[in-house]
Task: structure prediction
Amino acid sequence: MTLLAIRDLTVSVRGPAGKTTILDRVGLSVEPGGAVALVGESGSGKSLTAFAAMGLLPAGARVESGSVLFEDKNLLELRERELCAVRGARLAMVFQEPSAALNPVYTIGSQISEAVRLHQSISRRDARALAERWLADVGMPAPSRAYDSYPHELSGGMRQRALLAIALIAGPSLLIADEPTASLDRTLEAQVLELIAEQRRKRKMALLLVSHDLATVSEVTVRVVVLYAGEVVEEGPTASMLDAPAHPYTQALVASIPDPSKHGQRRLGQRAPLLPVLPGAPPRFDMLPPGCRFAPRCDQAFDRCAAERPPLYATSAGGSVRCFLYDTKAEAAS
Ligand SMILES: Nc1ncnc2c1ncn2[C@@H]1O[C@H](COP(=O)(O)OP(=O)(O)O)[C@@H](O)[C@H]1O
Ligand SMILES: [Mg+2]
Result:
């Protein structure tokens, strides 16, 4: 059984200029206990995909077609009450900005023990003891002091740890983490990612990790899905994605990682340099090119790329790539 299967998901948003399609038949799946990265430039549609995977979409966004199967239920067809039962129990999420997800007027401890008491009927005192154990488990220094602190009294890294504890208390089978380290510095980023990876192993939980940085997520995931302008352009095992990226866009992402020949020894959390990955910008969603969306920036594009939209082709690494360079039939015909 696939734990999470997003199929042909098309999502539009309503803006001042009317309706624009953002996600275009996006598909991705996560196996039980699996670890998948969803990677792409800012604005490529990662968060919309992550939210849709929770059955949550921001105001103005609308699912046009497709399905989100989680443990064999289509989340897009569940009623709010049923969805709430799934979220927070089987499916948990940590967000980019931890301070936005914590309530500023309650202590960390009361928010964690509330989560504990939601899932177990225990006394307040026992809930406190359990909450402190959770805080210790996610690497919170001085858990008892952290318990009595308000969110603003903790650092970003500590807030992210607290949020992670809240997400994990219910024992979810899938954790979705949307750029969970975006507000942290490099050292903290490494620690929080390692913590997420460790908790995944320990709790046999699956992970969908969203990031704009392929190098960072490749350390803790087994497969990678690359999104470009609202479309999946490549999917495959992490190792082959780094060693032999198929799509010209993924090739550019990998080329921007410092010293790719040594990526095996890269320190966790070592970031790609803040250089543009490749010249130009992704297309606007209301002005998408008629052919391949990446063609205007692609140094390997040929006539067909500007005229036709490429489908996904199977790669030898067991993944798929949306690029005419891999159309073996066209090769045979020419
Ligand atoms: N609620 C919304 N209303 C209008 N446009 C949105 C909304 N949410 C996202 N978008 C647009 O959809 C695109 C993808 O957004 P998002 O999924 O947040 O990208 P990412 O997470 O990859 O940076 C962006 O162009 C963004 O402006
Ligand atoms: Mg985002």
